[in-house]
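Handout, section B. The chain below has 281 residues.
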Amino acid sequence: MKLAISAELKYTINSPGTIILNIHALRSQKQTVLEEALVLEPWVKVEEFTSGAYENRLIRLELSDVKNLSISYKAVVDNSLRQIDYSNLTEVPVGSLEPSVFWYLYPSRYCQSDKLYRFANNKFGHIKNPFLKVLTLTNWIHSHVEYLSGSTNSQTSAYDTVTELAGVCRDFAHLGIALCRALTIPARYFTGYAYKLKPQDFHACFEAYLGNEWILFDATKLVPLNGLVKIATGRDAADSAVANLFGNIQGQDIQVSCNTVENDFDPFYYEPSKFLGLTYE
């Protein structure tokens, strides 16, 4: 599936500083960046690098005498997605997991799985099939947490969300991750561009490690699962922030878009009666 994405960002620079942006589409075996362009107005010193832990593509902008900065990123991405039948999936003990996924079992800043252990196991621990377990907790979040813009802030954690039962996509993702980890299922944060998201913005969801694959889940159910372009993954939003500002720098505007290049898009959502998981990895 080919998708055209773009991001337009504007900043006011009140002092010399640095911006680290995470808006480039991730390059992987299943996600190919066919073309892309980055335009800065005015042009400033820019360096692209890859974060060592997650292979996310970052750019660092060094700002000195610039007062206003406009950033435009556009790309065309081809995603090769795969559906996996998990009807016969069984639980994998921690001792048999790949060591590379241990990092996604631990509590993190926004996903305090240790505080949600009892809640998660009382609600979902009885479900034997791990895929059904994650799908059930995802549906529970969707049914019980109100999607409410402006209800949370950058300090809101999964523990706050399960208490207040309100949040935005970032909070839905953090809660899904925390509940998975409390159930000994590795889970990680996913941020990306999303087709059919209204209003258009960067979108957050999560991936759970099932049967040696990273499987996508979105508790908001605002977009088709096959209409996403991955930007980054991490333990939580702290590892996958779209922008980190260092200095007296103020964001003025963000415009994001994601559209199909092809006309035969068939939206894919999970159905409770089917055990088909979708992987972007």
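Note. The longest helix spans residues 130-144. Compare this with the example in section A.
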